[in-house]
Write a structure and sequence with these properties.
By secondary structure, the chain is mainly α. The chain has one domain. The chain is elongated, with a radius of gyration of 22 Å. The termini are far apart.
């Protein structure tokens, strides 16, 4: 299940930014511009979902089968940040908002990974809860079995 839809991310992008995200050339035809931006948006979403899964995998089986609204929101924020960061984000300009939203998303995901925030979507993985799991064979030697040797 996708954490967000391409249409949702595309709606967050300003039309005047599309040409710079796509590349150097100006594309006047709106349909052609939308055709070129679509795979770029899909890749940004895939990268965002991978980043989110990297944090969530410590506590939940990923990809999530139930997507909480917070994860959907942060997936869109990260995807938009991924798109704008392709051309560089000016921290002193209006684009700093995208960086701030990205940082808020990462801070939230870190808290989830640390167990300080629960997504409320069910059981947490046993292996993920402790950070690791160990499986081994039954013990062959003990003090009792080695006595007298």
């Amino acid at each position: 299940m996708a954490y967000c839809e391409a249409k949702e991310v595309r709606e967050m992008l300003k039309d005047d930014a599309l040409n710079s995200i796509i590349g150097d050339t100006y594309i006047e035809d709106e349909a052609e511009r939308e055709t070129k931006i679509a795979p770029i948006v899909e890749n940004a979403i895939a990268d965002a979902e991978g980043e989110i899964d990297g944090y969530l995998a410590k506590r939940y089986p990923v990809p999530l089968s139930i997507v909480p609204k917070a994860i959907s929101k942060f997936a869109k924020d990260i995807a938009v940040y991924n798109l704008y960061s392709r051309v560089g984000i000016d921290e002193g300009d209006k684009e700093k908002n995208y960086l701030n939203r990205y940082r808020a998303a990462v801070d939230f995901l870190k808290l989830v990974a640390e167990g300080k925030i629960d997504l409320g979507i069910g059981s947490i993985q046993t292996a993920a809860r402790t950070g690791f799991s160990v499986k081994s064979n039954e013990r062959l030697f003990s003090r009792g079995s080695m006595r007298g040797m």
